[in-house]
Amino acid sequence: MTHPSVLPALHTIDRLAPKAHPRIAVVLGSGWGGLTAHVQDAVRIPYANLEGFPQATVAGHSGELWLGHIGAHPVAVMSGRKHGYETGAVDGMRIPLQVLQALGCEVLVQTNAAGSLRADMPPQSLMVLNDHLNLPQRSPLVGESGSERFVSMVDAYDPALRAQALALAAQRGVSLHEGVYAWAFGPQFETPAEIRMMARLGADAVGMSTVPETILARHAGLRVLALSLITNMGAGLSAEHLSHAHTLSQAQAGGDLASGVLAAIIGGLDLNPTPSQP
């Protein structure tokens, strides 16, 4: 049953893009905006026209929904997301993801910019997520009722999709790293002590997004694939001065490669394997 809160956005999309029936939803983080150049026959709808979609407040997030095709797959690409640090709420992507699922999306592909905790994964590297650390222990499911809110997070990042991503990237001569993403609430960057703690907990990269959307997606039964573009080393691991401007600069430098690899992955995905269960 479609929740009433998603109906206004669905009606707008049906009016502006009546032929849109996406199977893959994509959320673009900093550095990944070039993917939109790979969307064929695109219909662009500003978030401002979609009730319940976030208004862009972070540089590097344009705030548009792109509907079209990448390869043979119909896609819905969100150019920009809502972060918990913007308002303190962690459920800002609830309605957009519900809308995309109601349109027919079965898979959520997430992207982000992240800091590396590994010497062998320098800036401009790409990492596919195999797990995450929810360090703030915040959940967008707080307030939900029923037993469905107790969703399993085992294999939250779908193993079959992950294996396909690794193989498809390798076909382009790109080696994806694989690792655990630590969610830090932000907006301030981490301290060197916090970075050392995260490394001891098993994190390979750190960023300020992705985890709430993954929780929402698994609650909804969507399969999740997620990739990080490494834009810096974690605090204390290099001499670089961390700032959002530095993150955007590094994201722009690696964005073309990242977006090209992402387009190849999305276009080549086989959506037929048995999905993991939430």
Overall description:
By secondary structure, the protein is an alpha/beta fold. The chain has a 5-stranded mixed barrel with strand order 5-8-7-6-9, surrounded by 4 helices. A hairpin with a 2-residue loop joins β3 and β4.
Gross geometry: globular
Major sheet strand order:
5-8-7-6-9
Q: Mean pLDDT across all residues, rounded?
A: 93
Distance between the termini: 18 Å
* E-strand count: 9
Structural class: alpha/beta
Low-pLDDT segments: none
User: Could you describe the largest sheet, including whether it forms a barrel?
Assistant: 5 strands, mixed, barrel
Helical residue percent band: 25-40%
Oligomeric state of the chains present here: single chain
Radius of gyration: 17 Å
β-strand percent reads: 15-25%
Q: Helical region count?
A: 7
Topology of this structure?
Elements: H1 7-16, E1 24-28, E2 40-46, E3 64-70, E4 73-79, H2 84-87, H3 94-103, E5 107-116, E6 126-134, H4 159-171, E7 177-183, H5 192-201, E8 205-207, H6 211-220, E9 223-233, H7 244-268
Parallel strand pairs: 1-4, 1-5, 5-9, 6-7, 7-8
Antiparallel strand pairs: 2-3, 3-4, 5-8, 6-9
Helix pairs in contact: 3-6, 4-7
Gist?
Helices cover 29% and strands 24% of the residues. With 278 residues, the protein is an alpha/beta fold.
